[in-house]
Design goal:
168 residues, alpha/beta, 39% helix, 7 helices, six-stranded parallel sheet
Length: 168
């Protein structure tokens, strides 16, 4: 990853409230990044009593998709940001969630990890198997919103240790 992220590693993080989950994704707004499945997982979490905040950061290549996202009261959209601003957004979030349909490696996962954010990533794609499942986050079936929601909850239950391993 860019030296900026290594020079500005964050310390391990804690969750102040297990019922408030701040999710972030950084990347182009397009079908492949699978924002709608993440949105569906967020709705499941809301139905289970969680206060979810979902921040999508990136240039929109699909205005119809962006419209579907920002229609939800718990979603905030911000266009592409320089790394000096993105780091602040990562640090104000809890979990990085990007279950892409297809992914080569995805440097954004490592960038988010450098800020102590546990991850949700796609099983069998790019970042998967870089770490043992459950060490810094979880792999998921990118089309299974219920599994994504369940894994987000599992992260909150082991948040401090996962965050510590992200920056170790």
């Amino acid at each position: 990853i860019d030296a900026f992220w290594l020079a500005n590693m964050n310390t391990p993080r804690t969750l102040s409230n297990l019922k408030i989950i701040k999710i972030i994704v950084a990347g182009t707004i397009q079908e492949n990044k699978n924002h709608l499945t993440t949105l569906a997982a967020c709705k499941i979490l809301v139905d289970r009593g969680y206060n979810v905040q979902f921040l999508a950061v990136g240039h929109s290549l699909d205005e119809a998709l962006k419209s579907k996202l920002i229609r939800e009261r718990f979603v905030n959209y911000i266009t592409n940001q320089p790394k000096e601003e993105l780091i602040k957004l990562y640090r104000s979030s809890d979990i990085y969630v990007m279950p892409s349909v297809k992914e080569t490696f995805g440097l954004v996962y490592a960038e988010a990890m450098s800020q102590g954010l546990p991850l949700i990533y796609t099983r069998g794609q790019g970042f998967d198997q870089q770490f043992e499942d459950g060490q810094v986050g979880y792999s998921v079936n990118c089309f299974d919103s219920r599994e994504i929601a369940d894994k987000i909850i599992m992260i909150t239950e082991n948040y401090e240790s996962m965050s510590r391993r992200c920056v170790a």
